[in-house]
Amino acid sequence: MKSAVLTILVIILFIIALFIGNFALFAQPDDSGAKTTVNHLLKKENGTYMDVIHVTVRGGTEEEIGYELGKAGIDEFDSFLLPFADIKYGEEKEQYIKSYDDVLYERMLGIKKAYQLSEDDYSYDASFPIYISLYPSCSALYFPPSSTKDGHAIVGRNMEWDYTPDLDAFTGIEDGNFEDTIVSEMGTLVHVVEIYPDEGYASLVLGTMDLLNGIVDGINEKGLYVASLQDGDTYNDPLDDLAGSTSTGLNFMQVLRSILEHCATVDEAKKQLSETEVFMPYMGQHFLICDDSGDATIVEFDNETRDIIFIDYQDTPVPITNYAIHLRPDISLCQPENPDDPHDDYLRSAKLHNYISGHEGDFTTDDAWAALKQVEANADAGNKTVDRLLWRVVTDLTNRTMTVKYFLKDGPINNQTLKTRDLIMSEPFTFSLER
């Protein structure tokens, strides 16, 4: 009897101890790890075109940040990993990333955890969890601090792409028709991502395709800005080079993310790029990279050697559209390929150059908005799919802020000759790096 009572007493004490231990465990504040918030800024409704989701990750190791981005991608964007054709490509790519970019490598380990893959699983590409595709087109304009009224460095950017007014809501890739899906669904789902790691540079980006790397416009806490724009004169690589399949290097978005994570100035970005081989899936790209000191460079690529070409600027306004400037440095010698198309690359470039040369006095953020308004994609060509401005953003590199207006839907035609429309845009959203 005494033995039974003693046994019951031990069990009761064990349960009490377990309860106290668990209570203490749950009562302790969680002071470690990354904390993620998700806000749906815009939703496709009442005939509007796109969903915009804002993801913020605060604190944490790089692996924890990767896990949080992976989970947010799965939960909010239906992100998925592309498979490698053979695990040898996956292992080779991961080893290259480990040697090239320690931040991306550690975040990949977190992505693998989010997708419940083991660390040594090389069958899927954890470096680029994709949700949908959009490639950066359009126009941009940099005003160095020496040229602005308030002494701030400013960048304006139009992001444009094909627009299908009667597009159905995105439901995923059906029947393996990957290429058709990404073309028809471009720009219908986009993100804003802020990352504040325990160590390293905080960053703020606008983009699409992949929360981990999908940068169209981005700035870090040091005031370094990066943007990618389509360059019709530059080589492009096959579809497989985007991620997975036989790819073993980094696509251009991954390279831009790496610059934001590791570089504080244009000079540092140029040095890193000089040590990098950049892959160009689908279409050629060139980059605008600038900082809050007045330094800027346009990064382009030789089609035969694939050598990087830097076109450097100091304290000079810089316009850029969608042709290789190193091949045609003098816009006055460039004849429009489509004179009747207001979105012709050379026409837009000439408008931006003329805006700069004809401007009196110092520039302001209002000038950035006004100049980009003149070159927005807008005209209807009579086709089911036409070009449209998807967002316009003005970035203050000095304040580390980005103010963006998103395309909602078409308004009425305002010019019957050009077939241009009043575009209905969202109210401006302003995002600010907090350190």
TrEMBL record:
Per UniProt, what is one GO molecular function of this protein?
Answer: acyltransferase activity
Q: What is this protein called?
A: C45 family autoproteolytic acyltransferase/hydrolase
Coiled-coil region:
none
Report if keyword Transferase is assigned. Answer: yes
Q: Source species, please?
A: Methanomicrobium antiquum
Q: Which PANTHER family match?
A: CHOLOYLGLYCINE HYDROLASE, HYDROLASE
Keywords, comma-separated and alphabetical: Acyltransferase, Transferase
Q: Which NCBIfam families would you find in this protein's record?
A: C45_proenzyme (NF040521)
Which residue ranges run through the membrane? none
Show the taxonomic lineage: Archaea, Methanobacteriati, Methanobacteriota, Stenosarchaea group, Methanomicrobia
InterPro entries, per the entry: C45_proenzyme-like, Ntn_hydrolases_N, Peptidase_C45_hydrolase, Peptidase_C59
